[in-house]
Amino acid sequence: MDTIPITVSGAKALEVELLRLKDHERPRIVSDIATAREHGDLKENAEYHAAKEEQGFIEGRIQDIESKLSRLQVIDVKQLNQDGRCVFGTTTKLLNLSDNSEITYQIVGEDEADIEFGKISCHSPIAKALLGNEEGDQVTVKAPKGDILYEILEVLYI
């Protein structure tokens, strides 16, 4: 069974989601199903079928999270050897050398990646180019629109 790398905040978010699903969503959907049953014929009861479908989704997500939680490798970036290299969990400030724009990314696990918040999967092309490099290094990212050359301005262990 493969381990799943995740940051401390990512692991906590999964635990919070699991608690919400078990403590709030599961009881709510059971109540919705009971209410829909009271409306009679289940064959033509759209509310019942929608509630059962949602129940299947919730139960599937609960199983998925429980499986992941059993395989997590929680990495606390603050506890790592802070030698200036880009590693899992670090936040990296980059300079795009073609247009002089700056961007900041945190390298995280797949479940917590969210480009809108600057969190990129450790399996993404950008993260793969950054990993192992340090401040001052130039890296080339293979992007769909062509190669992008970045300079690493800062590596943060926050």
In brief:
The protein has 158 residues and is of the alpha/beta class. The protein has helices spanning 8-37, 46-71, 125-130, and strands at residues 4-7, 72-75, 91-96, 102-108, 119-121, 138-143, 146-156.
Task: Provide structural commentary.
- It is a single chain.
- With 158 residues, the protein is α/β, with parallel strands linked by helices.
- The protein has 2 domains: 4-75, Transcription elongation factor, GreA/GreB, N-terminal domain (Helix Hairpins, Orthogonal Bundle); 77-156, Roll (Chitinase A, domain 3), CATH 3.10.50.
- The protein contains 3 helices and 7 strands, in the order βααββββαββ.
- It has helices at residues 8-37, 46-71, 125-130; strands at residues 4-7, 72-75, 91-96, 102-108, 119-121, 138-143, 146-156.
- β3 and β4 (102-108) form a beta hairpin.
- The longest helix has 30 residues, at 8-37.
- It is elongated.
- State which percent range the strand residues make up: 25-35%
Number of strands: 7
Distance between the termini: 29 Å
Structural class: alpha/beta
* Domain module count: 2
Shape: elongated
CATH superfamily (homologous) name of the largest domain: Transcription elongation factor, GreA/GreB, C-terminal domain
